[in-house]
Amino acid sequence: MRDYFYHLADEIEAQLKPDEDFTCHLLGEDSDFVRFNRNRVRQAGHVRQIEINLDLIEGARHAATQFNVTGEMGCDLALLKDQIQVLRSQRAHLPDDPYLLYATEPHSSENRREGQLPEAGDAVRDIVTAADGLNLVGILASGLQYQGFASSLGSRNWFGIESFNFDWSCYLDTDKAVKSGYAGFVWKPSELYARIEHARAQLAMLSKPPETLSPGHYRAYLAPAALHEIFETVGNGGFSLKQRRTMQSPLLKLAQQERLLAPSINITENHAQGLAPPFTPSGFIKPPQVDLIRHGQCADILAGARSAREYGVSVNAASEGPESLDMAGGELTITDVLKRLDDGLYINNLWYCNFSNRADCRLTGTTRYACFQVKRSEIKAPITVMRFDDSLYRMLGDCLTSLTRERELRFDAETYHRRSIRSVHLPGALIDGFNLTL
User: Fold this and answer.
1) Can you give the pTM of this predicted structure?
2) Residue 355: which domain range?
3) In this structure, are residues 422 and 411 in contact, taking their beta carbons and an 8 Å threshold?
């Protein structure tokens, strides 16, 4: 596929007029998808798709399009030539773009990360065997994802990565369920079995009569999945150059040093890991890491190409939302969580998170799935659904007790247009004073 893409780029270049440039970004995948219901396969298939994003540039004017191709050069060249003619006719009616920015220094790279993925049939057998007797519902996505970038200025970049993501829930009755996941680059049946057995044990606890809590502040453990929901919300503008410069960032008070997080909070955008390529759709090479929060204080910020042009800074990200968020762990071992929690709440998942006060980075949402009351370091009963309303500055600042040493790698399970390339690597957090409102 790399050779096909480079050949396609050469053909685009051959079509250019003397005053034209182009950038071309390819996104593709070869993925197996398997859907489960009641621990049985309900749908299985393979998807191969390739999308081209082409930008035809003349000075500061440009016109862009996206279209799908077959991967067969003979079929795709006619479509490509037609698209170039359409872009020329559209560009003639467009004004200059003051924020157009693309890489003008040629850079070529090749980065392939091979995984150890099972055949779809083997993965299905592992899942069905491990979840025997459970009402498991979920989706397995596995295979190769790849991206390429080429330009008329000589850049040729290629990235391919093999990974899997199994996102599932085990249901007991109605809304009583344990949600879990297993993602990575090397499929290990033993790890899958361990995670499903953990879900099985929590499912047994859900069969007990639930405890209804009164509103108030509770000592709580937030599992990595719960923190994931929080950072999904905070990442919506929290680390964006544009949002910060226009004073709309939910972390503005942190940037202005009016508020702080705990010194143990260290967060990076880890471009060297995760699923995202090391180059942007406009051809810039990403730094291996971008420090976002260092020892509880703001460090760098994510700058996409258009914001970088507007504010005169260097491009360091494909977009201004995290794609490979990496949060450092602490000293608490996962086996000691219940002991350190003592009396409190064990919260596996949060849901429907949104800002209740964006300026103060205050979030609201609900507990969901397997959330439990803990007494004397033992899980006693599930809790009914409760709403929380709390500021990140309290949860990961004044009220943070410790972070777990172990961290969980989680991939975004979205597959609406293609498999997502977003990931997080997060610990769990022990909090003294998590605010439940109703």
Assistant:
1) 0.95
2) 216-436
3) yes
